[in-house]
Amino acid sequence: MNKHKCAVVGCGRIxxxxxxxxxxxxxxxxxxxxxxxxxELFDLVAVCDINEELAKWVSERFQVPHxxxxxxxxxxxxxxxxxxxxxxxxxxFEVICSLAEHPKKPRLIFAExxxxxxxxxxxxxxxxxxxxxxxxxxNHTRRFSYAxxxxxxxxxxxxxxxxxxxxxxxxGDVVSDGVHMxxxxxWFSTEETAISVExxxxxxxxxxxxxxxSEARVMIRDNxxxxxxxxxxxxKRYQYIDELELVEVLPYKFxxxxxxxxxxxxxxxxxxxxxxxxxxxxxxxxxLKLALKWRERIWKEGS
Length: 303
What we know:
Layout: E1 4-9, H1 13-21, H2 31-37, E2 42-48, H3 52-61, E3 66-68, H4 71-77, E4 82-85, H5 92-100, E5 108-112, H6 119-131, E6 135-139, H7 146-156, E7 163-171, H8 178-188, E8 194-200, E9 207-213, E10 217-221, E11 226-234, E12 242-250, H9 256-273, H10 281-302
Parallel strand pairs: 1-2, 1-4, 2-3, 4-5, 5-6, 7-8
Antiparallel strand pairs: 7-9, 9-10, 10-11, 11-12
Helix pairs in contact: 2-9, 5-6, 6-10, 8-10
């Protein structure tokens, strides 16, 4: 089976350095390490960064044969199937345009989240990729997680009843971190679901989701490591009233590494069968749109 030739543009944290900067993380954590871990499907042949010394160091670390400072030069010299774009969101439009409009464009671009920092340019990314026949996948990681996919199927098969309320709590930047929560809101909720999401300025990581259904409650705790299912039971304290009781810790556990590898497997599937990615430009744009709306709300409340 022929392997897909791939490259990583942007050799920073998520592109190639996560394992170095955060040795406690499960591996693979970066795009470069994920491609190397999935070597039966992908051949990582190049890395590219405006910092040429960094690109050279990353190429040596991952035993990648080519490194470049310029995207166009990379495409001029190599035939690539997949390119990961891991540059900062602000300006990602220019990088993706350079890839999609090149005569030797890749077949698929795997863009980090958020798709862009600017909504107008995010929509332009969709247009330029469609115009040039380049598939686009956006790395909203939980979309590729067995845990969140399993829960999504349970929700859609009405295992817990109607989703009445999506409540989310997250720390970090409201856009770059918040798009993870925004994508979950878009993925799980319906027009009838009430939404309550808060960005908290804590010195520690928090990412929790509370799903209130007509027949149950699911709480996602410990930053995705614990999924708790509550069901209404006859109250032990009150007459004629039911109260929620923890009945099961669901067999789901979010794994960043597993999700990254699943994303690459989906890329392989899309390329071999000519399918569109499950998390493409539309999903990336809608998540960005919601995160920007939250940021605007925070600015107004703070003024």
